[in-house]
UniProtKB/TrEMBL annotation:
UniProt KW Oxidoreductase keyword: yes
CDD domains per the UniProt record, alphabetical: SDR_c
Pfam families the record matches: adh_short_C2 (PF13561)
Protein's name according to its UniProt entry: NAD(P)-dependent dehydrogenase (Short-subunit alcohol dehydrogenase family)
Family: Belongs to the short-chain dehydrogenases/reductases (SDR) family.
GO MF: oxidoreductase activity
Keywords, comma-separated and alphabetical: Oxidoreductase
Xref: NCBIfam families: PRK07231.1
Domain of life: Bacteria
Keyword Transcription regulation: no
Lineage: Bacteria, Bacillati, Actinomycetota, Actinomycetes, Streptosporangiales
Species of origin: Nonomuraea jabiensis
Length: 255
């Protein structure tokens, strides 16, 4: 049985919330009693995701936002606090893949794009979440890195650079804000059954087959399994957990 949490009276913000791991986390926060701000670049999809939660009796707010635009991020966080009165938890999940390419052949455009979303986007979200949380003197943030933040794989240099960067960002902010009552950690998903991975399995079947051979559990992870880890990191059960990069990867990084 999965643990359950009581987040009644608390507010969570989730980016990349219209599908995959973000949607799973938003659903889990809502099921645990939290009001949830769902943030995503896809306005129609995030509106539908929030409607699913409100139709089920939960408090949910849909916010269309491009995490590469700091003004949009600041506005989304401010709107969350204006609507629900506070911000207790955040899962900074929005991310993209970069097309596989040799390290000598990756384009600057691909490097800049993947780092704009995966690293600068999380930096921006964390920055504006912290501005509210430091006033409260409490809060928990989980940033989404990846097994690609812990290892290196061929033809993934730009993507892995962005995900390694998330861990450095997380650890530095974690030690700065722990004395202020705010806990910051990262989750490092393995190969998870999400729309993004489905596209990779289809378009990069040979490379993905090799990656799957290194996942000892022998299956894809599920978005719900990542959501479980995120909720634990945000819960009082993880009150002494600060600055970790938690692998949730079916044993990939245990090699």
């Amino acid at each position: 049985m999965n643990p359950t949490y009581d987040f009644s009276g608390q507010v969570a913000l989730v980016t990349g919330a219209s599908s995959g791991m973000g949607l799973a986390a938003a659903r889990a926060f809502a099921a645990s009693g939290a009001a949830v701000a769902l943030v995503d670049i896809n306005a129609g999809a995030v509106e539908q995701a929030a409607k699913e939660l409100t139709d089920a009796g939960h408090q949910a707010l849909a916010l269309a936002c491009d995490v590469t635009d700091e003004d949009q991020v600041a506005a989304a966080v401010d709107r969350t606090v204006e609507t629900f009165g506070r911000l207790d938890m955040a899962y900074n999940n929005a991310g993209i893949q970069a097309p596989p390419a040799g390290a000598a052949d990756e384009t600057a455009a691909d490097f800049d794009r993947v780092n704009a979303v995966n690293l600068r986007g999380i930096w921006t979200c964390q920055k504006h979440e912290l501005r509210h949380m430091r006033t409260q003197g409490s809060g928990a943030i989980v940033n989404c890195s990846s097994l690609g933040g812990l290892v290196g794989l061929p033809e993934r240099a730009a993507y892995h650079a962005s995900k390694h960067g998330v861990i450095g960002l997380t650890r530095s902010a974690a030690v700065e804000y722990a004395p202020r009552g705010i806990r910051i950690n990262a989750v490092c998903p393995g190969v998870i059954e999400t729309p993004m991975v489905a596209d990779m399995l289809e378009g990069q079947a040979e490379a993905m087959a090799e990656i799957m051979k290194q996942q000892p559990i022998g299956r894809l992870g599920t978005a719900d399994e990542i959501a479980d880890a995120v909720l634990w990191l945000c819960s009082p059960a993880a009150a002494f957990v600060i600055g970790v990069a938690l692998p949730v990867d079916g044993g990939f990084t245990a090699h």
